[in-house]
Specification:
Chains A, B: One of its GO terms (molecular function) is protein-arginine N-methyltransferase activity. Chains A, B: Residues 336-500 form the PRMT5 arginine-N-methyltransferase domain. Chains A, B: The record marks 362 as: Critical for specifying symmetric addition of methyl groups. Two copies of one chain form a homodimer. Chain A is α/β, with parallel strands linked by helices. Chain A is 29% helix and 24% strand. The first copy, chain A, folds into three domains: 12-55 and 66-163 and 181-311, TIM Barrel, CATH 3.20.20.150; 356-500, 3-Layer(aba) Sandwich (Rossmann fold), CATH 3.40.50.150; 503-670, Distorted Sandwich (Hnrnp arginine n-methyltransferase1), CATH 2.70.160. Chain A has an eight-stranded parallel beta barrel with strand order 1-2-3-4-5-8-9-12, surrounded by six helices. In chain A, strands 18, 19, 20, 21, 23, 24 and 25 form a seven-stranded antiparallel beta sheet that branches. In chain A, helix 5 (134-145) crosses helix 7. The longest helix of chain A has 20 residues, at 98-117. Chain A is elongated and about 100 Å long.
């Protein structure tokens, strides 16, 4: 039974599982727990006492393995929807004891083969026993190589010792350097050994004490599929019911947000008030009358309560504002949720012509045009004093007019400020020009608007402009070649003319995003690892605040102007974050349209409710491991050739990566 | 003029160059230096004072660049054989000064384009100016992407500060950690950024003081093409002539051995005795009479003297012994020199039948058979007391008899010890059996030798053997499936019978070998990075002594025997070595034939003058950077399936690599 309703959430985070002990009677296990309100069980598949080495080798072939029931005791749908297999927790493939190691290999192989036979969706692998897990990883890697669709969840306790305790970091005992414990390192070794296999993921064991917020954040970029919350991690509220600390609550919100399923584990450790049947959240319980109440139902109820009272998703919090602005909520949701972590190749706006559907979508982004209207209004007022408003006509050119939204915003600004306007709408796409003509006719703008069907870089303007309005920005600001286009158009701007936007700056930050890395890797080629993608980032960890990269200012009258750029950035990540892995860099832009009117997607200053731009993602060919406290140095170049513009990028610290996209061999934007 | 003669050396180390200053008159530069005894010049191509930014931009296109002469002043052969281009040393592509950076980019581009136009074999790139070299590397990487065959030699000073000075390692000044200086790190960053490009190599600047021997060793695995020795690094001998310290002499021997060309640099700093014209080595100088004596000729003479008195190559030191054993010296030299660093796929001895040529070559390895004869002799004497020698016949089976060399060795042992022998020669290759029959007839062994044309794993022997003799060893001991074959043959060995060999052990050590890495990379696929190669290792740095890996003992009567193995090895490399890169692992074997008679190729205990086995090389898919003082953990598994045997391997420290060759997907030996 899903945890309840939460606005718009259709993800797996609605479901909650429970970890059970071995029981031969699987139908009972399932009915007890499903009736108790859980959606699935994490159940051992084999009797925990069984060891291959205890069976006489002559009998080994004839004997029946002590599995929990035959495949017939549940329907195929029940096995696959409601059971996660729990591999025997005693197994230890890195033990020094040869017998134990051999028994472990046999058990792991038999249990995974059985789980695979049952078509389970996932199996929970026990936590590696020591710091070394190479043999365990080698064995799992061999199995992954030939596995069906089953996921393997490696159980990792959520622990990290405090780095501030200097003794534990640098202290020596018996001549050995004692490293602080960080279970992330164990996971990282295991998955590196298994080559970041997409079917290997994490089940986090959430214990009563939690590591620092910074270090928790890393996990959201990792493929965490489940969080196992132990009953003894719960506190007791004033009424005697289980509840969680504020920090645990916040962590669970994160799990819900990132579609990580909760699994409850352990026995009831709270003595509930006698005769009580109401749940902690005050809801009535439909099941208590008809069936035995589940032993840990009160914990489940509390998790359901947290889920239902969860803060709305960031994407949803502006619903009322959206309605206020008459924004199409469905479209907005599609843009914000439907495209999550979906990699798109950036547009080639100069080489290709946009399609009608693309114009249609972007024109609905009212917020963007409101900002443009505000910028034009301010520029008009600055340019023409009130006393000249009725006598002076301002020449405004919209370069890259598309199907006219900026023409409309400019005319509205003129009307709002009472200024007289003459508009040239310059557009290179002949298909968009058709629409422009019909718009002008429909709106009766014939006296004010002149349509020019021409590339702004070639057009010979009959007069010079007071104001040049453009929207040629990409997710990374200059990546759709706004600098080159506006340099070309600058010829017909008056020396004291205004460009809207007047400047724009790109921003970048390092991220962990196992999801996107694996999506890029699917292509099995260099080209896709050297391409920047437009992507609605969701399942990722932002490891450091973003930093400014390239700035372009218009108009640009510097004598030896070049649009080539080089930037070196150093990201200092707090040592308490622990070590982490960088899969790539997330990029954004912020544009100053005019004076204090800006527009952008940099997370800390993003224009609310705007959906025209997703971030950009620059991948790394090999994920870079950064040890706790080490700085991360990133370099990026904007290179210009005679026919194309491209970026090259690399990391030089903690270790040097190859230079990506040398000479724009994989990814470039045509001029 | 080559440095002189040294037994068998036909490599580039015979040649010596000289670094010159800018001179417009290239024919003069060349004739002065060639007549002075040098083989090539390292000469600046462009006037050092020239800066693009100083030229009026209007004139820039029309003006002639101040190169040293036109391409016509020398013949194409002279340019390509005798001139290495020296790129202007002032260039600094990572300067904070934008003008300098831009001038540097222009100069580097112009000079390399000119060098390329002249078809020079190599250009010397100046040392990066600071610790950061990302922009320099990016620019060079772009050029490498489209370069003709020209090599780029990055000039790197041979410096490394002393790590034993604890203050410099961990001390802080102004809150910054002061890292020790190690120019290898600079090189490593640069080449990582350029993706280990095979046309990017190193020219080492040898200064008057040298880093530790351990740290020097690293460089022999790197693509060092030239060593620039400065005149002020020379000492003065008793007669007033320049000479080098013992440590410098040893280093130069290394350069000669690894075919690294010497380039002399600098002015004469020794005042030679007046009127002297004899060189330091006492040779008469043919050139002093006919031409102006070269200013630094005495330094060149000294280098020539060192070259000529160089220790014979390790491969050559046993020439006399070879002749003593009647070993074909030419064959030996081909095996030792001709196959240097040539990657060969290992044999599939069970699946394929060897060809006659292969038998021919290996049968010439007399040393091997002498060892077998010694082992059989000792075993015969142990088995049969003198008093029973004439009455008891020993049953000896040669399994894998090939064309008979072990049969011969066994019969010679019997003769030598006066024991009576009955030999079964078991061989699966029907082609070899033909030769065996004719050998037996020719030698008159019909009464002593029975030939069995059968796979030893299937043969039903008519009686049991006292002694089982085999030579099924690969470079890594068990890699040609000796364990599986001998397990199969053990059925027909008496319970107290003797196996020769009685055991064998594999060994492994980490190596830097840029050469082999680039050769593997050429294939551009995963398969070749997950294959172990048989290779006569030459141009590599051995970073640590080898360690034992797997041991197999025969006969093996343990109840639950398995030939699967797993070994974890930790290599602790002295901190004074500095950081280094591991391209893979070199493997060897040592076999105990009988008691103290052994046979093997592990470098410290290798059987002299034996050429049947080259080492084995396990590559790593991505070279692993190991920071100074960090341990290197290596894991290797021997896995057995029903139809094949294979290895998997990985590194887990300092960082985890993928598991190589999962399930034997790339490389395996068929059963």
């Amino acid at each position: 039974m899903p945890l309840g309703d939460n606005l718009g959430d259709k993800s797996d985070s609605r479901y909650c599982g429970v970890e059970t002990e071995f029981n031969d009677d699987m139908p009972h296990v399932l009915s007890y727990n499903i009736n108790g309100g859980f959606d699935f069980v994490v159940a051992p598949l084999m009797e925990p006492g069984y060891r291959a080495s205890m069976v006489n080798s002559a009998n080994r072939e004839s004997s029946v393995l002590p599995f929990a029931g035959s495949d017939l005791v549940l329907s195929p749908a029940q096995w696959s929807s409601h059971v996660v297999g729990k591999i025997s927790s005693w197994i230890d493939l890195d033990s020094d004891d040869d017998v134990l190691r051999e028994d472990s290999e046999i058990a792991l192989k038999q249990e995974l083969a059985w789980a695979s036979h049952l078509s389970l969706q996932a199996c929970l692998l026990p936590t590696p026993k020591g710091k070394s897990c190479a043999n365990y990883a080698r064995f799992v890697n061999q199995i992954l190589e030939n596995l069906n669709n089953m996921q393997l969840w490696l159980r990792i306790p959520l622990v990290k010792s405090d780095d501030n305790d200097d003794d534990s970091v640098n202290g020596t005992s018996d001549g050995m350097v004692v490293e602080p414990t960080d279970s992330w390192e164990l996971w990282n070794s295991f998955r590196e050994l298994c080559e970041h296999h997409s079917q290997l993921s994490v089940a986090l064991d959430v214990l009563s004490s939690l590591p620092s917020v910074n270090s928790l954040g890393r996990w959201f970029g990792e493929p965490v599929k489940a969080a196992i919350v132990h009953t003894d991690s719960f506190l007791t509220n004033a009424r005697g019911y289980p509840c969680l600390s504020k920090r645990h609550q916040k962590l669970l919100s994160g799990f819900f947000y990132y579609s990580i399923q909760i699994v409850l584990s352990g026995k009831a450790v709270h003595n509930l008030p006698v005769g009580s049947s109401a749940s902690a959240s005050g809801q009535t319980d439909n099941y208590t009358q008809q069936a035995q109440r589940h032993e840990i139902r009160s914990y489940l109820d509390y998790v359901g309560y947290l889920y239902q009272k969860m803060e709305p998703l960031p994407e949803q919090e502006h619903f009322f504002l959206l309605q206020l602005y008459c924004i199409n909520v469905d479209l907005y949701l599609i843009m914000q949720l439907g495209y999550r972590d979906f990699l798109q190749s950036p547009l080639q706006p100069l080489m290709d012509n946009l399609e009608a559907q693309t114009y249609e979508t972007f024109e609905k982004d009212s917020v963007k045009y409101i900002q443009y209207q505000r910028a034009v209004s301010k520029a008009l007022v600055d340019r023409i004093p009130d006393e000249n408003a009725s006598t002076t006509t301002v020449v405004l050119m919209v370069v890259g007019a598309g199907r006219g939204p900026l023409v409309r915003a400019s005319l509205q600004a003129a009307e709002e400020t009472g200024r007289k306007l003459k508009v040239y709408a310059v557009e290179k796409n002949p298909n968009a020009v058709v629409t422009l003509h019909s718009l002008v006719k429909l709106e009766g703008w014939e006296n004010m608007v002149t349509i020019i069907s021409c590339d702004m870089r070639c057009w010979e303007a009959p007069e010079k402009a007071d104001i040049l309005v453009s929207e040629l920005l990409g997710s990374f600001g200059d990546n759709e070649l706004s600098p080159e286009c506006l340099d070309g158009a600058q010829r017909f701007l008056k020396p004291d003319g205004i460009s809207i936007p007047s400047s724009y700056t790109s921003f970048i930050q390092p991220v962990t995003t196992s999801k996107l890395y694996n999506d890029v890797k699917l292509h099995k080629d260099l080209l896709h690892f050297e391409t920047a993608y437009v992507v609605k980032l969701h399942r990722l960890a932002k490891l450091s605040p973003s930093q400014a990269v390239f700035t372009f200012t218009h108009p640009n009258y510097s004598p030896d102007k070049s649009n080539q750029r080089y930037k070196k950035l150093r990201f200092e990540i707090p040592i308490e974050t622990g070590s982490f892995i960088v899969h790539g860099f997330a990029g954004y832009f912020d544009a100053v349209l005019y004076k204090d009117v800006h527009l952008g997607i940099e997370p800390t200053t993003a224009t609310p409710n705007m959906f025209s731009w997703f971030p950009i993602f620059f991948p790394l060919r090999s994920p870079v491991y950064v040890k706790a406290g080490s700085p991360l140095d990133f370099h990026i170049w904007r290179c210009c050739g005679s026919t194309k513009v491209w970026y090259e990028w690399c990391v030089t610290s903690p270790t040097a990566s190859p230079i990506h996209n040398c000479n724009g061999r994989s990814y470039w934007v045509g001029l």
